Amino acid sequence: MGMTALTLTLLYAGDAGGAWHTPWYAVFPVLCTGVLLAATAGFARYTVRRRRSAIKASRENTEAPASTSGSQAMR
To answer: Which residues of 35-49 are buried (b: 16+ CB within 10 A; e: fewer)?
Structure first.
């Protein structure tokens, strides 16, 4: 999202400086693309973290319990 904001800033700064002409509606495709890319990156990161935690949890559950002597007090 930061790169999208920077791109839009540069587009309209160039227009204000007279280097080129940027139409007013140019914000929509650039902004939608930036939001879509940010959402895709966030979803990919969420999927990777979820998978890693599931793998870690399955490895932790395969070992013996901490104590099998029954010395834990049940309340």
So the answer is: eeeeeeeeeeeeeee
pLDDT in tens, 3-55: 999 999 999 999 999 999 999 999 999 999 999 999 999 999 999 888 777 77
CB 4 within 8 A of CB 35: yes
- DSSP conformational letter for 18: T
The beta strands (E) that lie in the chain are given as none
Tokens of 58: 């399955």
Burial of 56 (0-12, 13-18, 19+ CB in 10 A): exposed
Task: Please tell me the pTM assigned to this model.
Answer: 0.62
